Amino acid sequence: MTARVLLVEDVDEVRRLLRVLVRRQAGLEVVGEASTAAQALRLAAENQPDVVLLDLGLPDLAGRELFARVRDAAPRARIVVFTGTEPDDNGFWAEHTAGYVLKGAEPDYLVRVLQDAADQGPPPGGPGEDGAAYAAASFPDVLESVPAARTFALEHIARWDLGRHEHDVALIVTELAANAVTHAASPFEVRLRSGGAQLRVEVRDESPRTPEPQPFSETRESGRGMLLVSALSTAWGIEPIPGAGKVTWAEIGTVGDPDAS
Fold it and tell me: In terms of pTM, does the model score above 0.85?
């Protein structure tokens, strides 16, 4: 079988060389190329590649945060790091990647690492092993992104036979996406995970400002949205990402739900 490879590298010349190198190998094909983290996350979510060749030093995001977000966007992919920086923690990268290759290594070695990653199949704990389903997509900081994010979420829960939660998911995604655009003034990413007893909705944006539920008021409109999120979810919270914004998340229980995945 042919393994589908996503190339993530911000230097055009290097990326072209990687493209030629991968295309020459039997059993490997390039399904996408990205020079920024935003492109990488979008292509990873859309294509769900088998292998991601990942440069950790992108201009808009780098290091472990970049790695974590790519892994979340394509949880079934094996990630091979290809970077000019020595590993900061050999144990971490050995455990969580299919290879850590320094730029300047022999091309044949890089090819062997990629082919080994392709042969390994999906990493442990990915969809199909824990029964979970994942989806992620990035959106620009414009008001039109709010209905687009809602449509994205509803399409996926319909595929996962969770249509009975359509109303709650639509309201939660609408509120969290609107907060990212109107209050954080930031591009944002929507992530969905369905598995076990929970459907989890996450919205990541680039602002450290946190939305707070406000006491109910018959005259004030602002602040009601997060009260609604709190009322509709079994749990919700806000997790800061140092230097990279925050994640606002909400979970909906599906215990005993005949439509649960």
Answer: no
DSSP-assigned letters across all residues of 185-202? -S-EEEEEEEETTEEEEE
Q: State the chain's maximal CA–CA distance in angstroms.
A: 68
**Could you tell me the mean pLDDT of each successive run of 10 residues in the chain, 261 residues long?**
91 95 91 94 90 94 88 88 89 88 92 90 49 75 93 89 92 93 87 83 85 47 70 89 80 64 43
**C-alpha closest to that of 69 among 98, 38, 100, 97:** 38
How many CB atoms are located within 10 Å of the residue 146 CB?
21
CATH of the domain spanning 3-120? 3.40.50.2300
User: Distance between CA 76 and CA 74 in Å, rounded?
Assistant: 6
Cα dihedral sign, 31-32-33-34:
negative
Parse the chain into domains and list their residue ranges. Answer: 3-120, 133-253
Tell me the C-alpha distance between 78 and 60, whole Å.
22
Using alpha carbons, list the distances in angstroms from residue 21 to 26, 52, 80, 83: 11, 14, 15, 16
Superfamily grouping for domain 133-253: Histidine kinase-like ATPase, C-terminal domain (3.30.565.10)
